[in-house]
């Protein structure tokens, strides 16, 4: 079906509701769940963070997820095109659609560093393949302390990789090519096929690793860490801001990914139940990932607050001292790669859909151009670990004075631009867009959940996001 392969928003559709939900779960479940969630939870006091995070997902994330998918499904265009249609039909200013540009830019920037991190994942897939091969060749496939390395040498793998821009560049390029290839194949033959194959494999691997971890690791310590909130910490502005930012990032919200995917959903799809499923699945994966990672980390006496290095340094070191660790490490990084690629395609699709629509270009050309673009801009993040390690691009922004390029792009997009863009979406849907157009799209029954959703989207989302943004940026206001 050549029409599908080269289809712009407005022509392409998922083959079923299940395909839509799977693709959207694929977008949501990603490095955000495996790499960002555990590291944020670890750095922000465990249970306190998890509690606030779950509240953010239920009260802000899920209602916004419904809002985004309905903007897309109503408009059946790119993110900006769909916002423009709803604004026009509601008699509102076209400026509302222009605001969607914030999300478009944020997501493109996220893609630039996402691909760098996913490149590390690919590098670890390659090294763990080598370790497994070595362990098998030595006749002891299930031994710990494999590949003749000491734990210190395993820990050194990450700084060694970071110090080597050439190596990082190769894996960033490979990941960028895979992402671009899938998006170039189209919505049905590319994005949907990837989700339908990779997501079930992801779930199987996750269940397997969690079971392994529960058996060989310290499950009790991990559960205490994740589920015992310290209420003192839970009300600290940084914890609130981090949890909100994480909810946006993990649910693919704010930047329009869910608008883009909603645009390919059919008229029959019930958007509210789909949004509920997506939010639930994403949160469940984050928590289960925590239950897969922390028992191993605790059982070898390592610290949970290693931050972003948790997945790439602490965890490999922990695997290394576990029975069968080489195989489990391989399974874990393959799983992370599957999760990453079904997310990166959604990040790219937002821009591709808009450029195809706006400039009437073909899908393959558009994907290739934007693919090259995010690869090149990604080099800024990549070099921030080595060549540009001492550059601090945002000395004037509170909280970002010491951020490297990588931290700056991650922090500004996740903690600032996505919530800001989500705030605008909530105001647009809660107050500006015509209720007669919006409400039937939700699939919610008027007497029951519709008023609840309306209250959340019109009041809770804008107020909570605005307050958290304000205090997150200016903690001195309340201290
Ligand atoms: N949700 C993805 C993850 O958790 C990342 C993402 C953010 C994807 C924004 C699309 C849009 O990894």
CATH architecture: Up-down Bundle
User: Ends: how far apart?
Assistant: 60 Å
* CATH top level assignment: Mainly Alpha
Radius of gyration: 22 Å
Strand content: under 5%
- CATH superfamily name? Amino acid/polyamine transporter I
Q: Please tell me the overall pLDDT.
A: 92
Which compounds are bound in this model? phenylalanine
Globally, the shape reads globular
The domain tally reads 1
Q: How many alpha or pi helices?
A: 20
Features:
disordered N terminus; binds phenylalanine; Amino acid/polyamine transporter I; mainly alpha; 479 residues; 76% helix; single chain; 0% strand
Question: Brief description of this entry?
Answer:
The protein is mostly helical and 479 residues long.
Characterization of the model:
The chain is mainly alpha-helical and 479 residues long. It has a single domain (17-477), classed as Amino acid/polyamine transporter I, CATH 1.20.1740.10. The chain is built from 20 helices and no strands. Bound molecules: phenylalanine (PHE). Phenylalanine is lined by residues 27-28, 30-33, 107, 110, 249-250, 252, 255, 257, 343, 346-347. Phenylalanine (PHE) is lined by residues 27-28, 30-33, 107, 110, 249-250, 252, 255, 257, 343, 346-347.
Q: Secondary-structure map with pairings?
A:
Blueprint: H1 2-5, H2 17-28, H3 31-43, H4 47-75, H5 79-89, H6 95-137, H7 151-162, H8 165-184, H9 187-216, H10 219-227, H11 231-234, H12 237-250, H13 257-262, H14 271-299, H15 310-320, H16 325-359, H17 363-383, H18 405-432, H19 435-442, H20 449-473
Helix pairs in contact: 2-9, 2-14, 2-16, 3-12, 3-14, 4-5, 4-10, 4-12, 4-14, 4-19, 4-20, 5-6, 6-8, 6-16, 6-17, 6-18, 7-15, 8-9, 8-16, 8-17, 9-14, 9-16, 10-14, 12-18, 12-20, 14-15, 15-16, 16-17, 17-18, 18-20
